[in-house]
From TrEMBL:
UniProt source species: Aphanomyces astaci
A Pfam family this chain is assigned to: Dynamin_M
Keyword vocabulary terms for this entry: GTP-binding, Nucleotide-binding
Entry protein name: Dynamin-type G domain-containing protein
Domain GED positions: 616-700
Amino acid sequence: MLVAKSSQHETRHLIDQLRAVGLDKYIELPQIAVMGDTSSGKSSVLSALSGITFPSSGNLTTRCPTQLILTQSKKFSGTVRLLRFDPAVESLPPTPIHSIDEVTTYIESITQQLVDEGQSISDDAIEIKLHGPDFPDLTLTDLPGLVRSVGDHEDKAMISRVDKLVHRYLVQDRTVILAVVPANVDMHNTAIIQAAEEADPDGVRTISIITKPDLIDQGAEDAVVDLLLNRTKYRRLGYHVVKCRGQKALNNNESIQQGRDNESLFFDSHAVWSTVDKSLCGTGRLAEKLTRLLMDTVCKALPKVVAEIDVQLAACKDKLVILGEPMSTPAVRRATFMKNVRLVLDRLEGGVSGNYNDTLFEDTEYNNRLRARLRTAESEFQAAIEELSVVHASTVDTSTREVVVGDFVEVSIDVEWEVDQVTDVDGPTIVKTTKLSPSEWLHSSKWRFLPELDLSDLKHLMTSNRGDELPIFLSYSTFANVVRQRYVSKWRSPMLQLFETYQTLLRKFATRVIHSTKCKPRLELHLKQVAYTILEHLSNVAMVELDKIMETESRPYTLNQQLSQVLMRLRTQPLIDGLDALSRNNDANTVQAGAVKALLQSHAGIGKNTNEDQQAKELHLAIVAYMTVASKRFVDEIPMLLNTKYIRPFLSAMFNETSETADGVLDRVLMDNMADVERYQTLANQLKSLEAAKTLINAH
């Protein structure tokens, strides 16, 4: 352990050094704080312990905390200084003193300085360091006495200020409360005892010092003795009684040493006090007791203090990183601005290109992988376009058609339909066939006529739009109308849905990227406004381009060779499928000629198709072929346009807009407000104190 490696003397001084660098403002340090009501004899106790004559002029002698650091050494030396509570106000260096008598003058001078500054009660502290052969190894903090009333010309606010100051020490768990109470009053009703009991109800860190035992009425000593012996009100640290110089002795210029001698004589000769345990009486024994108590408190608290320093150091550094450096000059503001802009642009590029190496893309709360999310939306868009591009056509109703011998039909064999010729008929729905059912009658559920497309709607459309073209030629205008009205016009909805998804995902992603920089709120707001303005403009540009594509697609056009290939496949595939079916039903090298003839006639519509039927069939096949080619083009075209006209231009525009940001804008968005300046200074002071403390501990 840290304490075990060092002497107790050095450890106690380490705490004093930590207090000197202001660590006590952020972390509770072990200490003994002397408290009491006014006129409780508190100053006399301190004088007896230290040998210092504290000022006694005025109704309120102590106006601020006084840190009394006493060290036993061979030669006398000392310093006095005023430690400012506000870290922003620099404390003056210590002033050397050459005799103990000078201390009183310096205390009076510093106290007057505080009064001149308008501080009737101050959080600043007087630090007195004394080394000499007559001093105990002891550090005490003397606090102003609790006030119940003030004079006519004194500030009434002093009462609450003293209460607040004393309370700040009372509530610290590492502060031992040295409660000074006179023996000639009802001690349990004194302000300090009541305050101590409230802050330390179990009495584990309170030691009561009873003063003025010589003023107790004769015969009333037993009650005070019972209290001293811890019988009346138990306290773990107990009680101690001292007799210091009274006002009469002070008026007679009695020296501190004479006061100590008179105290010893009093406790040795008094009828009651001479019978009390000597370890509970006198300032000499009190100094020994407090020295042990302070060391015990320091040794127990120091490891926790060290741990708290580490915790606060890390937290303070994190807060300063979040707050950022002060924006004191245009150069600093621009450097900070560009640093944040570069981070934003890098993360935007990562999301757009699918390079997910940044920690931003490891966020479990939000999916920041923009390109992956856009690809998902594009796949949904592709599925929607493909579904809307399917050319549906019903088949001709053959329920009333009569079957005759010689017809070719499809017969259900093992869940598959295969072509065969009718050889016999028994009514309108019962047949026999050549190969598949030569001896068994097939009911209607087992056979069907060869399917024929019902293209009556297309024939009607061609009739209503007929021009000079012959029936053997397709009408481009009819073809274009069907493509535009029945298919391409329906592409607009999924296209707009994809565009809306692009807009939503990119805006939210940009928002999270900007927020992830943890930049100042006004800078974050500015960058968001820049991004949103760019996105709004690009949305309008992209929408115009999308409308152009829709307008272009409304006029069927392609040079893609796949159109003729798909069309030829659509024309021949039914014939190929029929021939495959015929070959499956016969020997490998034998196919019934009549079946082939019937299949060819059925496929070509010979003998039963009119000009309109054939033209409608060709139109249907042309539409299917074109939609196959055009839909594939469209599902590539839209995402490519959105990337080139919306996504990529956003990155370029963000770079251009931020690079050209004027100094005036940076002044507005990065100039520190007073709250930020004060917060930064507070954290910087805290960090300075914590780092100084860490250095002292490492050197200990």
